[in-house]
Amino acid sequence: MVRKIQQWGHGDSGRPSNFNDEQLRELVEENPRLTTRELAEQMNVASNKTIANHLHLLGFKSKFGVWVPHKLTKKNIEKRLKICDELLKKHKDGVFLDSMRKKQWVKGRSKAKSTAKAGLHPKKVLTSVFWDSEGIVYYEFLLTKQTINAVYYAEQLDRLKHALDEKRPHKASINFLHDNARPHAPNVPTTPDYEEDEQDIIEEAEFD
After folding, report:
1. How far apart are CA 198 and CA 33, in angstroms?
2. Does domain 15-63 have CATH number 2.60.520?
3. Burial degree of 54 (CB within 10 A; 0-12, 13-18, 19+)
4. How many CA atoms lie less than 13 Å away from 1 in the CB half-sphere?
5. Global confidence as pTM
6. Which of 10, 109, 169, 175 has its CA 20 to 30 A from that of 73?
7. Mean pLDDT of each 10-residue bin along the chain, 208 residues long
């Protein structure tokens, strides 16, 4: 009797544990969103706490995932890589690529100081800005209640062309990037002045 009490005091039930840690690992790796209750049901284990304890022993921690605007497909990712590679090759000798955001020295696991974004203002003015590696080429402000449609955008591109002729007269061609908003789509009606200029339209990745 004394021996049995001593064994019980040391946590030894006299029967080896038959918990399948490998099965638990496989279930979690297959679907990391399973709760301890769901895991207990699948493994026919009576206690959620038993599952939680073994997850801890296996090195798993419960954390929330990060919300992202869109789930990128493999095709989306490959397209982004392709576009980035093309842009880097176009400007492989550009010194502006060396101008990156500066890092901060911090101690241990401390985080770098954050920078506050500009606050939102109730009154807004829409501005169209066109620029290149040398700076702003052309900009204009939209009038109150005015919207950008395909016709307006085509006229705007003509005004941009005149600004390019004036400010960048020695450029033989243009590498032009615009987003995939409806007025900026490839079938925008353009005038002859704009069409006769040499252009290289750069694709924009989805959800960029």
Report:
1. 52
2. no
3. buried
4. 0
5. 0.37
6. 175
7. 50 60 91 91 91 91 80 88 85 62 70 65 76 89 83 88 88 71 52 51 60
DSSP 8-state code for residue 182 = G
Q: For the purposes of burial, counting CB atoms within 10 Å of the CB of 51, is it exposed (0-12), middle (13-18) or buried (19 or more)?
A: buried
Please tell me the distance from the alpha carbon of residue 90 to that of residue 198, in angstroms, as a whole number.
16
C-beta separation of 205 from 79 below 8 A: yes
Residues in the chain: 208
Collapsing DSSP to helix, strand or coil, 45 comes out as coil
Fill in the DSSP letter of residue 86: H
**How far is it, in rounded angstroms, from Cα 178 to Cα 128?**
11
3-state secondary structure 92-126: CCCHHHHCCCCCCCCCCCCCCCCCCCCCCCCCCCC
Give the start-to-end residue ranges of the domains of the chain.
Answer: 15-63, 74-94+123-202
